[in-house]
Amino acid sequence: MNVLNFVITGADNSGAGVIRQIVRNFPSTYCHTNLFHPEPSKRQEAHVSYFGDLGTEAIPEWCVPDKTNPVQYLTKKIFDNNINAEKRIGVLLTYADIYKIELLDLFSMRCQEGDFCMIHIVRNPILSFISMKEEAYAENSLYRGRPLFIDIDELREFVSLHYLIGTKIKTFCADCFEFKYEELVWNPFFIMQSLREFLQVPITTQLPSLPRARAKKKKPLYRVVNWGEIKSLKEFSEFVREDALV
Of 71, 127, 182, 242, which one is least surrounded by beta carbons within 10 A? Predict the structure, then answer.
């Protein structure tokens, strides 16, 4: 029986994690995450939670820098490897993962072969970046509760990655369900129904409950001390309009 392989992608803090929570609750569906996380302990945990075996130090089963080829890890260990007889196997990969491992050509090849598709959530990169920094501040007791100062060069690099990877997804994989973060916020049930159809989950299957939404907060911009500087830069103009700040 063929397995439908899929990739969920988006920028950091784009809502891709919520999409993973939704699809992993579909019947006969599993979606990996953190397989290429910078912290080894999280990569180990992600691998063991599904496969249960790390291999040996000489021949690791999980992704170890300088010992594991990430592309081969995806193609030989992750895709099509449904140890619980799932009909759909997926993995969440951020733009940074895709860029670092150079995965666009692999996606193109898999799309042409069939039984492969992508789910792409698009969010304003400046809001994704600010949200990511807010999380980092919240996790560090030295910065928790302090106003955010955004490094312009770091933000510029993040936005460039958004252009480089985010705008190329459909070019490299025609079988792609792409939608905006705002659609997930405004109509999550519709997105869940669309995902079910896209992943070929039987229509007779009852939809799972939506992940519990976080309490709404003020837009993160009120804590960015150098927002005026960011807003004044022409290169960010399309992302700082009032109608883009969702």
Answer: 242
User: Where in the sequence is the domain holding 72, given as residue range(s)?
Assistant: 4-244
Q: Which long-range contacts (CB under 8 A, 24 or more apart) does 157-163 make?
A: 158/11, 158/125, 158/128, 158/129, 159/125, 159/126, 159/129, 159/235, 159/236, 159/239, 161/11, 161/95, 161/96, 161/99, 162/11, 162/95, 162/125, 162/128
Q: Which of 90, 76, 125 is nearest to 230 (CA)?
A: 125
CA 127 to chain centre: 15
Q: Mean pLDDT across the stretch 125-149? A: 84
Residue with tokens 């397995």: 3
Which residue carries 């459909």 as its tokens? 170
Q: Give every CB contact of residue 152 below 8 A, 6+ residues apart in sequence.
A: 226, 229, 230, 233
Q: What is the pLDDT of residues 184-233, one digit of tens each?
A: 999 999 999 999 999 999 876 555 565 654 544 445 566 899 999 999 99
Distance CA 20, CA 34 (A): 12
CATH number assigned to the domain comprising residue 185: 3.40.50
- Yes or no: say if 191 and 183 are a contact pair by the CB < 8 Å rule: yes
pLDDT for 207 equals 58
Q: What is the dihedral of CA 151, 153, 159, 161, to 10 degrees?
A: -120
Tell me: the pLDDT tens digits for 54-83? 777 767 888 888 888 999 999 999 999 999
Report the predicted TM-score, pTM, of the whole model to 2 decimal places: 0.90
